[in-house]
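Ligand-bound model needed. calcium ion.
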Amino acid sequence: MHIKKLFIVLAIVCFSASLSFANGTQEGGEELPILGAGIYSATDNFNSFIGKAIVKASNGVFDTNIDDGQFDQANQNNQIDTMLAKGASCIAISLVDITAAGNVIQKCKDAGDIPIIFFNKEVTDQELLASYGKCYQVTSTGGTYGADIQGQLVAEYWMAHPEADKNSDGKMQIINLMGDPGHTASMPRSNGVKDAITSAGIELDILEEDTGMWDTAKAKEKMDAWISKFGNEIEFIICANDAMALGSLASIEAAGFNISGTDSEKYIPVIGIDALPEMLSKIESGEVMGSVLQDATTQGTTIVKMASNLVAGKDVLDGMSVELEAGAKAVRVPYTGITKENISTAEECYGN
Ligand code: BGC
Ligand code: CA
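Prediction:
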């Protein structure tokens, strides 16, 4: 009797063990390595698109899912601890706070020299990056982080539309909405776009310049005040990302601007950066003038290829036709300017 019971218990244990073995395994029965991945906040659409691209590219390569840091570095640290405790073979993360990079690198070292790839929020402490051989970055082109292209698009529009100088004073009256000051790309974008416009020979008159924290709701709130203060005196709205451009658009549309695109009675050109899918329809309709594609899909696939090379003990760029920028230890994915004319370039990036 007892032996029979024991046999049943053993049979159940064996059966459930074989079930759990089936989790995260390849077709051949081999277990996939774990890629511990996370973004700083799921409220950031651009980061969420990189997360989706990582998951897609990980199919059959890594067992992964994307943790949401929820804007809280302490929370993200716990998530990284959990990934490592679960036996992650590589970490890929957009940090909540880039000054936490040293601490996160230490966690990876302590867990047995687990490789780490930072993305989106670029770590600029080159000494720190150099201190760990298994640490790399994937971001978009540095320098102005796409804002030089954005400035060129603004300048081209201005030259092609003399009526855009509404008060005919020869200067461009602008609103400049900047990103989160804690993000590496924020100041370079703000300075970069202004430099590109002035070097095209256009004089700027900055009506307002403030941070919208990369965020749609915050940008809308700011723009609500500015549109009632300046109304049609605004000649261009320049936003450091699409989320803020969409918030600005919602605000000015509520005030009667841009509703019928360029045919609107009252129109203010708006430009962003990222070329997110939700922005493309607004460019198509003419409600928004343009954006600069930041290729989340290529960033995601690049992260996964580098991670799988590192896990296999190969050279980080093995089999890839990209270069590593020394110092930043970064693979840079280039930006592309997007207007109504070449919108399909951005649609293709998102597989539309
Ligand atoms: C993107 C923004 C994003 C920010 C936050 C930037 O590179 O352009 O859309 O909000 O990163 O990490
Ligand atoms: Ca003017």
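The chain has two domains: 34-142+295-334, 147-293.
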